[in-house]
Amino acid sequence: MAKYFDVHPDNPQPRSIGQVVDILRDNGLIAYPTDSCFALGAQLGNKDGMDRIRSIRHLDDRHHFTLVCQNFAQLGQFVIINNAVFRAIKASTPGSYTFILPATKEVPRRLLHPKKKTVGVRIPDHVAAQALLAELGEPMLSSTLLLPGEEEPMTQGWQIKDELDHVLDAVIDSGDCGVEPTTVIDFSADEPEVVRVGAGDPARFE
């Protein structure tokens, strides 16, 4: 059964954030709000959490998981970025973008795209998500909370608790967040490719 945390949207309660991080460190799986929509999150080395995300979303092994990072310094430890890409990403973060980039050796092998050896990274512009990442002290393995057969992600914390109570360990509710997932930009080739148009304006990468 999932624990439900009602977190203030502007000043997240440190005690609640600490309790959620304890759940993450104990190999838990959480649902949490971002600046684009709700997401599923687990600690980076949590293989069971990754398998549970795949099960909930019916994902195959070609799906790009995302490393949700607190800041640019953290992001830079996990992906290889040249100067031009650095400038483009820096100008767009924090924000509603996911960037697909070649991974460094810091990224667990099972998180990589099997052929391309790439991983998705993002820095959310959301107070509760940032508080969570600051307390955790490392990126979180993440995926949009979009259920199989649904057109749009779930948007209400209580509804997520109601529907996924049996498969989650915690739900953070911090008021409304958007219904659009992130815009995904693939930087793994020579030119950026807009893979999915979502909440972030894709124009700067086209």
UniProtKB/TrEMBL annotation:
It is an enzyme of class 2 (transferase). It holds the Pfam family Sua5_yciO_yrdC. Its EC number is 2.7.7.87. Residues 14-200 form the YrdC-like domain. Keywords: Nucleotidyltransferase, Transferase. One of its GO terms (molecular function) is L-threonylcarbamoyladenylate synthase. It comes from the Bacteria. The keyword Metal-binding does not apply. NCBIfam families: L-threonylcarbamoyladenylate synthase (TIGR00057). This is L-threonylcarbamoyladenylate synthase. The lineage of its organism: Bacteria, Bacillati, Actinomycetota, Actinomycetes, Pseudonocardiales.
